[in-house]
Amino acid sequence: MKENERNTNLPDRWAKLLSNRPFVAAVIFTLFLFGLEEKWFRLPQTLYLWLLPREPFWLYLGGVLSILFSLFLFLFFLWVSFLSRPVYRVIYAGILIGVILVQYNYQNVFGRFISAQDMNTALSSPFNLWVDAAAFFSWSGLLPISLYLLLTLWTWPRQQHGGRQFLAIIAVIAVSNVIYYYLGYSHSAALSVPAFFKTAGNLFIEGVEIRQLTRQLVPYKSDIVPQNNIVLIIDESIRGDRLSVNGYIRPTTPYLETLAHQGYVSNWGIAVSAATCSILSNKVILTGGSHLPDPDYHLETNPTIFQYAKAMGYTTYYLDTQTDYLWNGLTVTDLTYIDHHMTRRNFGQDYDVDLRAADFIYEQVASGTGNFFLLNKAGVHFHYNDTYPAEAIIWEPIPAPKIYVDPLAVGNTYDNGLHYNVEQFFRRLLKDTIVLEHTLLLYTSDHGQTLIENGETWSHCGNTSKEAAVPLLLIGQHNFSPDTQYRATHYNIFPTILDLMGVPAEARIVTYPLSLLEATTLDSANRYFLGGTVEAYYSVQVNFDQGEE
């Protein structure tokens, strides 16, 4: 009898559940978002499930279950939000609206959702770069946001839950993200909102793991006083093939051409960056990483270039004309090996900030030896119009402020920026070439730029070869005979600096790639860069020498 009562009550229970507006609203929004993102974003869930069968069955099953659980958890998140009191509804709405706007903007620009690497970059970027990012705003996110707000109004009378339920759902999401991470499913495809939660969890867990790491020490101490100055310049957003010293048709860098004709320049032409985002490229250059991705955190445990410089007796300078804080993989502990740390606070906030840094370096190297400088230049970062004054315009037309849609105009303003920033920088830095008798400069950039030449909607951090095309020049008088036909990458920079410092083999804590001073054409191999994000379920290692993948 009881069993029959349960059976007869089952339809009533389903009817009651379906009459529950918050539950129905949660189901409607979940299904809507799933269908919308499958259609708009190249079938992310379907593609993931199609790729997974290539893996072992247990991995495939785990991937399917992770997606289903993500959908269930998202539905539960919505259900609780529609049952909550007004103040908490505002919090839920703020989270969902913010996440959708971020995810849809990234899809609009890069064709993918945000990664932990992107989050780390955003958290390490000055406010003006956040403002610049508004130029890529995507209106597509307003559709699901509007539906969510309408469903919120539709379910408004149901106001039951508050802070306990909010903390509970956040705790469940956090715990599930930890489980995803350690089971290897933290990058499995999901709707935009659950995907963001997973990525935020990845960033937090990796941050905790990194904080437990320490850098290896360099116990070696040289008894020889350095007889030269070494200046490592990491420019910002400079594409190698747009410099006239590399054969570009416009005279964007005539002074570098003059130095080359005078025999001061060893030029490896178009080199390849380690990655197309700044932080990873800088980490590789500063710590001598040999590959990306870096799952074992070598970039956090390898000694920095400053440790070797101090071991060889150099006075160390770290100049950053981009920000006022540490952002490129260095930590407060790393400052132990930096004698002079100077930032935008010291050099200014306008488009002449790099030129003032050039003046400062010149004054130091002109007065003696034994100095090691690392400069993170402000360069020609997007928006390009903001990197030079109006009187420096040479090539026109240029884009209207914040409107970068015409490739010709974008190329013009970028070239103007190169001619003003890079050209004038070297004229100020080497105003008297006599300093090159005892000063060696190694110049590169963190990454290149797309310049939207092939319809790209982003400037960098994607996977096109132009974003990885960077300059690489050694400037100065020296007794080395480098083979500049060698196909160089960022990975060659760290060991080259060690050679310029004279660091002996027994003092080198880890095994590094080839130095540019010893690499020959026969050592050349295919060059790969990390494009986009390491958190995609498709390949992100791109072979620069075979074009884009």
User: How many whole angstroms does the radius of gyration measure?
Assistant: 27 Å
CATH level-1 class of the largest domain: Alpha Beta
CATH fold annotation of the largest domain: Alkaline Phosphatase, subunit A
**Between the first and last Cα atoms, what is the distance in angstroms?**
66 Å
- Which second-level CATH architecture of the largest domain applies? 3-Layer(aba) Sandwich
Point out poorly predicted stretches.
534-539
Strand order of the largest sheet: 2-7-6-1-5-3-4
Please identify which CATH superfamily of the largest domain we are dealing with.
Alkaline Phosphatase, subunit A
Overall strand count:
9
Structural class, from helix and strand content? alpha/beta
What does this entry look like structurally?
This protein has 549 residues and is an alpha/beta fold. The chain has 2 domains: 9-211, no CATH class; 229-546, Alkaline Phosphatase, subunit A (3-Layer(aba) Sandwich). The protein has helices at 2-18, 21-40, 44-51, 57-82, 86-110, 116-123, 127-133, 142-154, 163-183, 192-211, 254-261, 278-287, 298-301, 305-311, 344-347, 353-366, 407-429, 493-501, and strands at residues 229-235, 265-272, 315-320, 340-342, 371-376, 439-445, 469-475, 528-530, 541-543. Helix 4 packs antiparallel against helix 9 (163-183). The longest helix is centred in the N-terminal third of the chain and has 26 residues, at 57-82. It starts with a helix and ends in a 6-residue tail after the last strand. Mean pLDDT is 88; it is low at 534-539.
